[in-house]
Protein: Diaminopimelate decarboxylase
Amino acid sequence: MSHHYQNQQLMLEDAAVADLADQFGTPLYLYSRAAIEQAYQAFASPLKGRKHLICFAVKANSNLAVLNLLARLGAGFDIVSGGELARVLAAGGDPAKVVFSGVGKTRSEMAQALKAGIHCFNVESVAELDRLNGVAGELGLVAPISIRVNPDVDAKTHPYIATGLKENKFGIDILMAPDAFRKAASLPNLKVLGVDCHIGSQLTETEPFVAALKRLLALREQLQADGIELAHIDIGGGLGVTYTDEQPPKPADYLAEILPLIPAGLTLVLEPGRALVANAGLLVGRVEMTKDNGFKRFVILDTGMNDLMRPTLYQAVMPVLPINQAQQNGPLSDLVGPVCETGDWLAKDVPLGAEEGDLVAIGGAGAYGFVMSSQYNSRPRAAEVMVQGSQAVLIRQRETVESLWAGEQLLPEASC
Ligand SMILES: Cc1ncc(COP(=O)(O)O)c(C=O)c1O
Ligand SMILES: N[C@@H](CCCC[NH3+])C(=O)O
Structure:
């Protein structure tokens, strides 16, 4: 039996998933090129005719093929490390469209980004202003900057992924921001370009974005009075997606609320991550065995928390998509992995008749999936495959067992 995962925007038929699982083995990350393109256009179309830059948050999915696809669609990138910058460049991304966020940029990361000629550093503290001014001075360069402001807005999301509250480590408190801007404007090796914020991830309402934006715009006016002109305003990422029954605004609806507030001439920068890739991805695993302890039925997969952390880390509810529809109405089961941790689960109490050898896919796995995976329990990480039309392209090989100890060495004999 075949069905389409329409609400996952991933137009893969059961048969195709089964063939790909046979061909590439499991666990397997599958991405849909068409779904990524569609998600990108959902942001880009409403922005036509406006000065804008869509900077994909690389942390959501840093596979080179994904970055290359987005670069070819015209995207810029939001990076948070030198490693992410190197990936963007290796994938053919344009450094002039890169913004660099993060609270702990090292001197060498700053130098790397300055030499690459990135668009802007999103500076998160006064200490960072000083450090960046120093590094730029040593290189004889001027660093373009934005100041990340913490607007103290409740994003109404999981506390681990809320970033815009006073108690969070991110950005400079909005009340202290004018002083920070004045200082930045006075430093010889910095050039103030803009202001930014990012209040959290997986937001399902527009209201917190609008509240944050209004605070940033008020700050902009205050700065204008001080003679500091901003060229752009960056409202971060954070737009949520539908995993199961969430109803986040569509990018067009979200932008319809934001765009009228932005004065003409000001460039709008966005940093979407999840909204561009989450629903373009599936994690496919195979059932190793099932067991019923009289209290609970467990479906034990060949994939688990080391491949997909979101369920256990955020108690995230992600859709379970049995590849054979006949499995769908089985007994309530916990979907668990082989890792030796009680927290190794992917879904709890889902109706699932899957038995040994059956395939199960987790939807919404295109964002914060592979990138957060680990080799815990010495498990090689999964392969990644991009589906484009009738073709499937292997975009990252499954790790080998030998690669698990690459770079390790035994103690020299004499020291034992
Ligand atoms: C600074 C910054 N920008 C963008 C993002 C992307 O967020 P999302 O994937 O929710 O769009 C994040 C992660 O939350 C972030 O920390
Ligand atoms: N990793 C998180 C989002 C990260 C947000 C980073 N600022 C998630 O899976 O939901």
The chain has two domains: 6-29+278-400, 102-270. The radius of gyration is 23 Å. Confidence is low (pLDDT under 50) at residues 1-9.
